[in-house]
Specification:
233 residues; alpha+beta; 37% helix; seven-stranded antiparallel beta sheet; BirA Bifunctional Protein, domain 2
């Protein structure tokens, strides 16, 4: 589940530290008592800055999405859903937030102009649609098989050359049944989503305002891909 950010947020000045020491400590102290004792550290050093960061980036990207307005930024809850997991640790050891396009879904199934993930072990930034439900996936594959797919391939080519990486929540070993294995977009047809992971983000930017322009510059390049995905809804 994700929570909507508040309307009024502070200017982004950086996260608490570049090494995410709070999350390293949380990984060693998966107890409610410890978290409550350190919740202010999380709120001030990570949750508040993430809300501010997303709000600023949204304001700069929104003019580029005239056809598909950006919805309110969202930050994922730190509490894990352990109902169906063998790992019963109650807290995530990272913070994640995203900028969804209105009307494209919610959570990982939404087309997003930006997703930011910061933890002790990983910093990850991407844009796109991480996973697709049945109807979304059918529309995605149908588009890949016609002229829209050829147009997407032309958009993706310069991005991959620039260091963006294509990914998805899940990828089939083979193309879906009935599709030529040698289809020019076979690798895309195997995917159950489409995201573009940004080139590696320098951890030094996490603690300064330099992170805002770094994200905006790279997110702008992915607008045509996200808009292509939004057009399928």
């Amino acid at each position: 589940m994700a929570t909507r950010t508040s309307v009024a947020v502070a200017r982004f000045e950086g996260f608490a530290d570049r090494d995410a020491r709070f999350f390293r400590a949380l990984a060693r102290n998966q107890k409610r008592e410890w978290f409550l004792a350190h919740k202010r550290e999380y709120d001030q050093g990570w949750l508040g800055p993430m809300k501010a960061l997303l709000a600023e980036v949204r304001a700069r990207l929104e003019p580029l999405y005239e056809q598909d307005p950006l919805a309110e930024p969202k930050v994922f809850r730190i509490y894990r859903d352990v109902r169906f997991s063998k790992d019963k640790a109650p807290y995530k050891t990272h913070i994640g937030g995203y900028l969804p396009l209105g009307g494209t879904g919610d959570g990982p199934a939404a087309a997003s102009a930006l997703y930011v993930h910061v933890g002790a072990d990983e910093v990850f930034v991407a844009a796109g649609q991480y996973m697709m439900d049945g109807d979304q996936l059918r529309r995605f594959r149908a588009a890949l098989l016609d002229a829209r797919g050829a147009a997407l391939a032309k958009i993706l080519a310069p991005l991959t050359r620039a260091g963006y990486e294509i990914g998805a929540h899940d990828t089939l070993q083979r193309v879906p049944r009935g599709i030529d294995p040698d289809h020019p977009r076979a690798e895309l047809l195997k995917r159950k989503g489409l995201i573009l992971s940004f080139p590696t983000l320098p951890r030094a930017t996490l603690t300064s305002r330099a992170l805002v322009p770094w994200l905006v510059t790279r997110a702008k390049r992915t607008v045509p891909v996200v808009a292509w995905l939004a057009a399928l809804t």
